[in-house]
Design brief:
The chain is an alpha+beta fold. The chain has 2 domains: 1-31; 33-176, 3-Layer(aba) Sandwich (Glutaredoxin). The chain has helices spanning 2-30, 76-91, 108-118, 131-135, 166-176, and strands spanning 36-37, 47-50, 55-57, 65-71, 97-104, 123-127, 143-147, 153-158. An 8-stranded mixed β-sheet has the order 1-8-7-4-5-6-2-3. α3 (108-118) links the parallel β5 and β6. It is globular, with a radius of gyration of 20 Å.
């Protein structure tokens, strides 16, 4: 009786894992990140240090379109979208466009090791206490915000985005005009 019960429980567990996996897989592909027009009143402040300790403020980038991306090294969708951000940055080379990666609460050493290993060519800012994440009301990673040249948030994107897509390029190029 105990062997039969254990086998039944094991079969149930495997079945549940397959259903859960299928459901999660479906959700991941069914929910595509999209640009949502910003409805907040003001642009939240952003003043953080990069990996070398240099201070960065959003005000430093006035006159540029800025993609502010909140991410973490442990976040698979965050890591997955970085390649498309790199392609977008290359596509817009020579234009007033900047990507700022804001790391969500990890140590300088961990983030630095990741950035070196992945050869990231972005400004990486550290938010060790997650103060900026709270100010920007980041509830999920990745979360991104497009800031116009006037330093106002124009769009929010929650979840993984293909930044190299035509839609992304068109949206950012419209902000550059």
């Amino acid at each position: 009786m105990k062997v039969a019960t254990a086998a039944a429980l094991a079969a149930l567990a495997v079945g549940f894992a397959l259903v859960a996996s299928s459901a999660l897989h479906g959700v991941a592909h069914a929910e595509i990140a999209r640009f949502v027009a910003w409805s907040g009143a003001e642009t939240p402040s952003l003043s953080l240090n990069d990996l070398s300790g240099r201070a960065h403020s959003l005000a430093d980038y006035r006159g540029r379109v800025v993609l502010v991306n909140f991410w973490a090294t442990w976040c698979e969708p965050c890591r997955a979208e970085m390649a498309s951000m790199q392609r977008l940055q290359e596509r817009l080379a020579g234009q007033p466009f900047t990507v700022l990666l804001v790391n969500h609460g990890e140590t300088r050493m961990r983030v630095g090791d990741f950035v070196r290993r992945e050869a990231l060519a972005f400004s990486v800012l550290l938010d060790p206490n997650q103060d900026a994440s709270r100010t920007w009301r980041v509830r999920a990673l990745p979360s991104s915000f497009l800031i116009g040249a006037d330093s106002r948030v124009r769009y929010a994107v929650i979840g993984e985005m293909d930044w190299a897509s035509q839609e992304s390029a068109d949206t950012i190029e419209a902000l550059l005009r």
